[in-house]
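call fold(seq) -> tokens
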Amino acid sequence: MIEHENQRKKTVYIIGHKNPDTDSICSALAYADIKSRTEDNIFIPKRAGHINEETQFVLQRFGIKPPALMTDVGTQVKDIEIRRTEGVDSGISLKKAWEIMREKNVVTLAITSENEQLEGLITIGDIATSYMDVYDSRILATARTKYRNIIETIGGTMVIGNEHSYFMRGKVLVAAANPDMMENYIEEDDLVILGNRYESQLCAIEMKAGCIIVCEGASVSNTIKKLAQERSCTIISTPHDTFTVARLIYQSMPIKYFMRSDHLITFQTESFIEDIREIMAKKRHRDFPILDENGCYVGMISRRNLLNMGRKNVILVDHNEKSQAVDGIDGAQILEIIDHHRIGTLETMSPVYFRNQPLGCTATIMYKIYEEHNLEIPPKIAGILCAAILSDTLMYRSPTCTQTDREAAEHLAQIAGIDVEGFSGEMFRAGSNLKNKTAEEIFLQDFKKFSANDVSFGVGQINVMRDEDLKELKQRIKEYLPEAYQKQNVQMLFFMLTNILEERTELLCVGANASKLIEETFEVSAYDGVYRLKGVVSRKKQLVPALVEAMQQ
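ret:
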């Protein structure tokens, strides 16, 4: 009952921007808590990138598990309807496979091992071809057909022999002639289809036939049984006539002899639809097998499944720029956007709930939503929201900080039982401890892309408490910047090394006209390739708006 109810619920992923900061992660966690307590769907917080040192400290401090990584929200195979047709054993007969296909109304069966590994495929076309193209009377032996398959196919019973044994040598023939002529064409190990004539049964056994099939329900004498036992000849009895048995017996062959096992086209449950659509279009297969992450068979999909595929439902927090959004956002269904930045470049297929407030932090908006719903804020959630506000506002020093942010942080600190100043110092020190990080990891720790007036640019930022922390970082980033410029595919690149306590930034830049843009915008000159910007600590409210305005003039 619970499982059935969950199937009706919609899964919604709540996710922040790439290279997430503390606000992005903590707001996703908090909003998932709010939505789970106010709506009857499944809300899952996710992250679009690696968690930085500061955020790790915050989550560990309050004992909260980090959201799982989700680098792409495009539609995956697991998001569409997979036909859960069970795999079959390679030893079943063609007739049994045909019956399963008719029962399940499918045209393809997957052949799997005991541990659900895919061994091959057989289609209705393969079965038809096998039936129409059989001219070799020894194919039943070549296919190593189990006697149990033969019995099942012709509706027979085992009189003498072991149904688990295999017919592996000899040809199949119908004994329509008298015994004198039978001696001329029955060979050792043959399978002989015959009637109720005692003489014919005896002749076949004496000619060392491997199996005789007695048709039309004819009785088998004790003498024949005894002789067959002595000569290791299998006897099967069937109610059908010889014509029917001769027509049916080739349907007893195991499907493994006809299945396709080489160059199979399979997809993973985690495969993205955009990656497999072209392959499916080029190959005229009706069905494609799906495997899970362990390589086990799951089911089938067809091109028809792509017509009704659903998109992932997402709520975006702390951003509304397409360049900052998780990969695959164009293929997702955006339900809501909760943000505190300038209106960006994201477009949606349908109207969405869009809440954008001029506050210093998205976490402050989360605090207000808790209040609006009269929801009690759990101490752990209060702790991470307070940390997010302190981080984004640089402990109230950023020009983005409002009185609302300050009041929210102070109240959240009371709920979480933390001292704002002492906790902030610990958090910022944890965030500036980057000794074990590569230059690339430091650069990407808080990096965002923007565009204005057909110009693309990126801005990274690191906040530190002391000038000593800046010296080594500055040199490492300065050396790495040309490489970053090549990788990020933007026209200009900027990196802010911000001293929180001194409230100033040392700015590095690279790219066409980047230096000229900074010099004209802030009326400063570089010293050893570094621009010193006094009073500039906010990327959102001070650096990016100034650059955008200069580009538009």
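Confidence is low (pLDDT under 50) at residues 1-5.
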